[in-house]
# Entry
Amino acid sequence: MLQELMDREEISFLLHEYCRTLDAMELDTLAAIFTEDCVVEYGPEDRLQSHGRAAIRQGLERLWRWRRTSHHLSNVQIRFPRAGEANALSYIIAWHERPDGSTATIWGQYHDKFVRTPAGWRLKRRRQTMNGNDAGFTVNVFPSERRQPPAGWIAPVIDQPVTARQGGGRT
Amino acid sequence: MLQELMDREEISFLLHEYCRTLDAMELDTLAAIFTEDCVVEYGPEDRLQSHGRAAIRQGLERLWRWRRTSHHLSNVQIRFPRAGEANALSYIIAWHERPDGSTATIWGQYHDKFVRTPAGWRLKRRRQTMNGNDAGFTVNVFPSERRQPPAGWIAPVIDQPVTARQGGGRT
Amino acid sequence: MLQELMDREEISFLLHEYCRTLDAMELDTLAAIFTEDCVVEYGPEDRLQSHGRAAIRQGLERLWRWRRTSHHLSNVQIRFPRAGEANALSYIIAWHERPDGSTATIWGQYHDKFVRTPAGWRLKRRRQTMNGNDAGFTVNVFPSERRQPPAGWIAPVIDQPVTARQGGGRT
# Structure
């Protein structure tokens, strides 16, 4: 069990290292997180999919079209389906700012498969999905799965008109 | 100590599983995170409080009034006051989008009590508080506690006029 | 290795305790996270730098100029360069609200050095950098480092006009 805790620690480190190196545009260090034969799908279009470490590195140069970015990762859930393999789900808030000062934010998920290699754990497959986005974010990303309400479901009244609010922090 | 690290890992997993299943509206899986006799308070009003697993499951159907949601959990702090019990504090950014495209965001905290059961750790009590909210979020939630300044405290001038900014990333 | 996992747990706890006590303005508890001789740089100006625990406590009283705050920490990466020392990088989303209801948000990083003391791990040095900020945030903070594109790099067309979007969550 100690080994499993250490594996979780190492995989979490790589998830965060991806964010750090992407925001710093240290693309060589970023590419080393992946296996040589990795497959990454940021969206359903060809230009958002990369096969192989070199292609991922080159593809992510597109992040330079933003002036600044910030990738905040959380909700890490790691499972080990078999020895030497790990499935990781994580949540990402990705904030991007264009040279003109306008911004784009995605509320997303990374669905990842890691494998253990002689050099340590490496990311073999990543699929990005999107829980939500603001109006400024217009890249075509897979929607996260969400179940629909049963037929005939009626929304209750929960939200209060602003004037009737009480007890909250803005009274 | 190894057991305690594993307990922390299991409780953290459940905190994240709550977010995942809520955003996916997998309410049966979500309900299984709680004890049968759990008490959940999302706010001070009756309609925001649930007693028992079945009531929580039914109450959370109200999330279908949003078109999309994304719950980003962080700042997990777990303490074990006695064997088989854990107090967990975590921070949550909950983003919600209505069918009309308008959004509501809460900057909140979950104050939780977990208990160890034969089936594993389960959530027995949750109280949500709110550090902040945007104008779109109008649900009545308990404010997080915050101490007030001493009498006579005067705010210093820290924030700069935009024109005088230098050294930051937007120069 | 078990000791290292426990050290990571303790340091992570302190990173979160900083956020919790800052949002609650429990400044005495916050100050105890630091060493007596700590140095904190929130930005390049003198008024944003503090030397010593007492000065940090007093300096952070400036947070009372906000009505509410919420500090969401993630992406924790801890390394142990030598026994009794730890370097920690973490990401922070810091949301602030003024008494007039206007807000300021920073997307930042904490670059920290922790040391082991007889009383446990303590924060000896913190430098805050900024990946990004919204228009409401006007404090002068160090920019996070980001590599520039090679000379002659041309931005690809990735973002779609809103009318052409498909496959995303907002169709």
Chain C has a mean pLDDT of 92. Chain C is about 20% helix and 40% strand. The first helix of chain C runs from residue 2 to 24.
